[in-house]
C-alpha cells in the first residue's frame, strides 16, 4: 500500500469528533460496556500498584 499522506489525514479528519458507538448500539449496552471498562481500568491500576 502506497497511500499519500493527504489520504490518511483526510480519513483521520473524517473520524474525529464522531461518537464511538454512533447510535448503532443501545444506550444500556453502552453503559454496561463503559462500566466494565471502568472496572477493568481500576483493576489494572491496582495490579500495577497504584
Helix and strand arrangement:
Blueprint (H helix, E strand, L loop, with lengths): L4 H11 L11 H22 L2
List keywords for this structure.
single chain, mainly alpha, 2 helices, flat
Describe this structure in words.
- With 50 residues, the protein is an all-alpha fold.
- It has a domain at 22-50.
- It is 66% helix and 0% strand.
- The chain has helices spanning 5-15, 27-48.
- The longest helix is centred in the C-terminal third of the chain and has 22 residues, at 27-48.
- It is flat.
- The model has no long low-confidence stretch (mean pLDDT 86).
Question: What's this model, at a glance?
Answer:
The model has no long low-confidence stretch (mean pLDDT about 85). The chain is flat and about 45 Å long. Helix content is about 65%, strand content about 0%.
DSSP strand content: under 5%
Determine the mean pLDDT: 86
What structural class results from the helix and strand content?
mainly alpha
> Major β-sheet, in short?
none
Q: Characterize the overall form.
A: flat
Helix content: 55-70%
SSE ordering: HH
Instruction: Give a count of the beta strands, DSSP E runs of length 2 or more.
Output: 0
What low-confidence regions span 5 or more consecutive residues with pLDDT below 50?
A: none
Provide a count of the helices: 2
Amino acid at each position: 500500500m502506497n497511500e499519500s499522506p493527504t489520504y490518511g489525514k483526510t480519513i483521520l479528519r473524517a473520524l474525529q469528533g464522531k461518537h464511538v458507538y454512533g447510535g448503532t448500539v443501545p444506550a444500556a449496552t453502552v453503559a454496561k460496556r463503559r462500566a466494565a471498562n471502568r472496572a477493568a481500568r481500576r483493576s489494572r491500576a491496582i495490579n500495577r500498584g497504584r
